[in-house]
Write a structure and sequence with these properties.
The chain is of the alpha/beta class. The chain is about 40% helix and about 15% strand. It is built from 16 helices and 14 strands. α5 links the parallel β3 and β4. The longest helix has 20 residues. The chain is globular and about 60 Å long.
Length: about 450
């Protein structure tokens, strides 16, 4: 039985028209884009689920804040308001704004990592893995085995496999593990949450070995909502209380604020209490991002971020936000469309490996389903699989991902129930002809983060 749709806790006061191209027009557009959905013009997409990063709808309060933005180069009022807002939520002594999440990674990773080092995470996302490798280190994923079975239920499929974590630390040597990264929610595993118990255990292991814990906090509020709903002892706690405890187990965090803080641009680095470490963060911020009190952002963006952090932890908003994913997941389950269950916080992750078992990993089933969804209904998602994972940095061989997902990332406060129903209807039509779908090959690719700009063609 389908879940009841949780009604929006807001009213709409501005609309943006979107258009629907014909199938023939969509075929021409994807061919011109070399079958890379990142190369499509946004106006040629009817429902754009490429990412939830920076694509949310800001509130009246945020837009009003933009008009108050203080554009002073150094020490603006907006910078201090952001400091106050972030410290209120995270409880960290030091907060550094940057222009987005990958900028935070660019600032932090060279401090912790280098040649011969490894980073261990419940799963590195694409830019995190890239910055680990740019720093000369190697990324090792350590998610719990339950995550690999997309059809089974487990409340916290994003957890770190802590038994394996200990083995990995012993194998590599604690002196060679530059960071343990806890990604909340775990994007690459299907937007799956991480339990407080697991975060605490990971932190205790890290402290035992003297290794820094970095929290990738892009979707921390969604993770806190899952903890409140699913973990014993947190039912009566507020999202703010849960967030304070969660971040107490880290040493620092990086954050793309374009997700749970519902802004179109912005990021943060937080350091709990290590003043010397924060000096290194500031030293990297100035040449990479600009002066420390604006960090690559306009004052108006600092203001919107300060407000968005507070709005992003509101419980009614989170019920609606997660409710959209659960509604969509229930409809897909009824239709027999395989996807990571239970639904994650920000997206539906279609299991292209199960839907298209005839397409091997090196022909990119996640990308094949992504392109077909655009052709069917003008819906733009993206591959989270072997195509995105790329090549081994040492051998150049194509890596095989643990998952072959097509991710449908839903922007915050943007689409309605009717849009979600269109997605389901499109996937039902694709399922009818799934055996006829073909894989893809890459005709050109860059060395790093290839999925953004690579060129592909369908196999005959």
């Amino acid at each position: 039985m389908s879940m009841k749709y949780f009604a929006e806790p807001f009213k709409i006061k501005m609309v943006e028209p979107i258009k629907i191209l014909t199938r023939e027009e969509r075929l021409k557009k994807i061919q011109e884009a070399d079958y890379n959905v990142f190369s499509l013009a946004a106006e040629d997409c009817y429902i754009d689920l490429l990412t939830d990063s920076g694509t949310g709808a800001m509130s009246a309060g945020q837009w009003a804040g933009i008009m108050r933005g203080d554009e002073s180069y150094s020490g603006s009022k907006s910078f201090y308001r952001l400091q106050e807002s972030a410290k209120d939520i995270f409880g960290y002594a030091f907060i550094q704004p940057v222009h987005q999440g990958r900028a935070a990674e660019k600032v932090v990773m060279p401090i912790l990592l280098g040649e011969g080092k490894v980073s261990i995470s419940n799963m590195h996302f694409d830019t995190t893995r890239a910055h680990v490798e740019i720093a000369g280190a190697r990324a090792v994923d350590c998610v719990v085995p339950e995550a690999l079975d997309t059809e089974s239920y487990a409340p916290f499929k994003g957890n770190m496999d802590n038994e394996r974590l200990v083995r990995l630390i012993e194998e590599y040597g604690k002196e060679n593990v530059g960071a343990i990264i806890i990604t909340v929610t775990n994007n690459s595993a299907g937007g799956q949450p991480v339990s407080m118990k697991n975060i605490k255990e990971t932190s205790e292991i890290a402290k035992r070995y003297g290794i820094k814990v970095v929290i990738d906090a892009a979707r921390f509020a969604e993770d806190c909502h899952f903890i409140k709903r699913r973990e014993e002892g947190y039912e009566e706690k507020s999202i703010r209380e849960i967030a304070r405890e969660l971040f107490s187990y880290g040493d620092l965090f990086t954050m793309s604020s374009k997700k749970d803080a519902i802004v179109n641009i912005g990021g943060l680095v937080g350091v709990k209490e290590d003043a010397d470490l924060f000096e290194k963060v500031k030293a990297n911020t100035i040449p990479f991002e600009g002066f420390i009190s604006y960090g690559g952002l306009a004052g108006r963006d600092l203001e919107a971020l300060a407000i968005g952090l507070q709005e992003g932890v509101e419980e009614d908003f989170l019920k609606y936000r997660i409710g959209q994913m659960e509604y969509l997941s229930s409809k897909l389950t009824e239709a027999g469309i395989p996807h990571q269950t239970p639904a994650g916080g920000h997206a539906i992750f279609l299991d292209a490996k199960k839907l298209l078992p005839h397409i091997p990993y090196h022909e990119f089933p996640g990308q094949a389903l992504t392109v077909e969804l655009y052709l069917e209904a003008g819906i733009r998602g993206c591959d989270i699989g072997s195509y995105m994972l790329g090549n081994d940095p040492d051998t150049g061989a194509q890596l095989e991902s643990q998952f072959e997902f097509t991710r449908l990332a839903v922007p915050r406060r943007v689409y309605t129930q009717s849009h979600l129903d269109v997605i389901v209807e499109a996937l039902i039509e694709i399922k009818k002809r799934k055996d006829s779908l073909k894989g893809y090959e890459i005709t050109w690719e860059p060395k790093i983060l290839r999925h953004f700009t690579a060129k592909l063609q369908p196999l005959k």
